[in-house]
UniProtKB/TrEMBL annotation:
The keyword Transferase applies. This is Putative reverse transcriptase. It comes from Sarcinofilum mucosum. Coiled coil: none annotated. InterPro entries: DNA/RNA_pol_sf, GrpII_Intron_Splice-Mob/Def, RT_dom. The keyword Nucleus does not apply. The lineage of its organism: Eukaryota, Viridiplantae, Chlorophyta, core chlorophytes, Ulvophyceae. PANTHER family: NUCLEAR INTRON MATURASE 1, MITOCHONDRIAL-RELATED (PTHR34047), PROTEIN YKFC (PTHR34047:SF8).
Length: 133
């Protein structure tokens, strides 16, 4: 994703959380807290390095797995397509899902690779070697 979770729409995130109104108000305040060095009060995004940021990012992306089979860790996602799957159709669905949440696909990081030629994910190299029969 482009810029990680900096673009997350706070209201959409809060709407996805099932919690008492008091807790939601507290979460809203946590999202808007500025940093002393840079007194900015963000209207979107989850501040990097904050304790709640990974949880809130996961809540934001909840449901993306219904688009297509995937492997995800934070903002690193791999969608696993079969030869008969339409790459453009899946990509359009992903873009629409992210757009509603204030996020975009990173054109620079988005790649199509055959698993037999291998790919890198989270610092590891993966490669499907074929049948071992």
């Amino acid at each position: 994703m482009e810029k990680g979770f900096e673009g997350i729409n706070h209201q959409i995130l809060l709407d996805q959380i099932i919690a008492p109104a008091r807790l939601k108000r507290c979460l809203k305040q946590c999202l808007k807290i500025g940093v002393v060095k840079h007194p900015e009060y963000p209207k979107q995004g989850t501040p990097q390095g904050r304790l709640l940021s990974p949880l809130l990012a996961n809540i934001t992306l909840n449901g993306i797995e219904q688009i297509h089979p995937l492997i995800r860790y934070a903002d690193s996602i791999i969608f696993i397509l079969k030869p008969e799957d339409s790459e453009n159709e899946v990509l359009d669905q992903i873009k629409a899902f992210l757009k509603v949440r204030g996020l975009n696909i990173s054109q620079k990081k988005t790649k199509t690779k055959a698993t037999t030629s291998g790919f890198n994910f989270l610092g590891w190299h993966f490669k499907v070697l074929g049948s071992q029969r």
